[in-house]
Amino acid sequence: MKIIECVPNFSEGRNIENINKILDAIKSVEGIKILDYEHDKDHNRTVVTFIGNPKNIGEAAFRGCKKASELIDLNKHNGEHPRMGATDVIPFIPVSDVSMKECVSIAEKLGERIWNELEIPVYLYEEAAKISGRKNLANIRKGEFEWLKENMDKRPPDFGDKIHPTAGITAVGAREFLIAFNVNLATNDLSIAKKIAKAVRFKNGGLRYVKALGFEIKERGIVQVSMNLTNYKKTPIYRVFEMIKSEADRYGASIIGSEIIGLTPMDSLIDVADFYLKLENFKKDQIFEGRIWE
Hints:
Distance between the termini: 15 Å
Largest sheet: 7 strands, mixed
Strand content: 15-25%
CATH superfamily of the largest domain: Formiminotransferase, N-terminal subdomain
Number of helices: 9
Helix content: 25-40%
Number of strands: 11
Structural class: alpha+beta
Number of domains: 2
CATH class of the largest domain: Alpha Beta
Order of helices and strands: EEHEEHEHEHHEEHEEHEHH
CATH architecture of the largest domain: 2-Layer Sandwich
């Protein structure tokens, strides 16, 4: 069975009514299944995870993007997470009997359609990128909506030639599985989170498959190291956690806890259990729930 995962990020994490309208738009496509969605008030962002096949996945993503453009005005938006669009990013991930090439094709067609029908310009990123520097989403989103509103000509999109006045710009791409992993620290000193994020992220000499930023979680009076792990097999969760723990110790801070946003492969958590429990001869088929659904 052909299965593709789509994980759009919407710049709305506070208005539950509007979040539900976006979810309803996605679910209105026959055969689409929403697996998970999480909204965060501080980040002011909602991450939706749904699956479908090559024939319906693009339509569902388009309907979600269209509804978000009707409901979200970035001129009135504020939150901890960087953003440039009402629908900030739409990645397609091959899951079963689907190639990365097919996901790239879907991303390209969707990007062109978003511009043609919604007049929202689109950057192609990761495996769909036409320009090597655009594989990294951070390079595209730098400056966010406010900078791009005045300077988009300095970073021309793949589709479109003018920014949408309220919905901004959207990035559409294809990639491998990504884990959104956050670690919360028992301090309100934002500079500590930023120093740790700099130490752990790859572009500053840290772990190879880690992107990281430091954020303030005002509602809880703490700070957070927020990360995307782009290859959990080569940079596993436990390695990231241990490095953050070590760095936090340097600044006299402790870890309150960690969280995974959205879904994660079972293998990634088995790796964590194996590391901390020092499991011997453990096999995936020893997991009870996995055997039930064989």
